[in-house]
Amino acid sequence: MVRSHYFVDEAGNFDFSNKPGASRYFILTSVKMADCSSADALISLRRGFEWAGVEFENGGLHATSDKQAVRDAVFERIAEMDIRIDTRVFEKRKISPELQTLEAMYDLAWSTHAIHTLYDSVDRDEELHIIAGSIGVKKKNRILMINQIRNAVHLAGRSQRDTVVTISEAKTDPGLQVADYCCWAIQRRWERNDARSYDLIQSKIATEQDYFESLTDYFY
Hints:
Helix content is about 40%, strand content about 20%. Helix 1 runs antiparallel to helix 2, helix 1 packs across helix 5 and helix 3 runs parallel beside helix 4. A six-stranded mixed β-sheet has the order 5-4-1-2-3-6, with helices on both faces. It has one domain: Nucleotidyltransferase, domain 5. By secondary structure, the protein is α/β, with parallel strands linked by helices.
């Protein structure tokens, strides 16, 4: 049976306000790949930069903190990968107050993302390993994520027997580092209208949905 890997990362925070530092959007991005060897090659890329004297703050590749030379090299590799990117974008000001919590926001993001992507991107007889980046180190957040992802998978019609859900820190898995980079590029485009990195991966993006595009009411 064919097995695919579905690496998922998010961008934005759970601060539902107009305060400085609060993101305008919450973005969930998945990267599907059948062969993880192209992502694993990023480990050698990182070692090469380390030999050249580059230090990595988080012990692995991370788009937000990596130097521009590192970003350029990583995006060059991603552009060569056989991957499928799907992303859902949620403008937080349009979310009704009762949904303005970490739990409700994450549940909404995952359920809609799974329903809109798993039908199209995963065959019925295909095994699926979902690896999601960790929101935080708190145990309750990890349990929350796993339960909500499993519920989303069920809503999308996937069998629990053919799907495994794993929560990991991005620094431990090159596939998650690819998802981190892709999600960062998409966030830069939406939050800052900066499409420099987005343009490098645009051909890999299968779906990109502004989930609340038709809504006009703002709650803060």
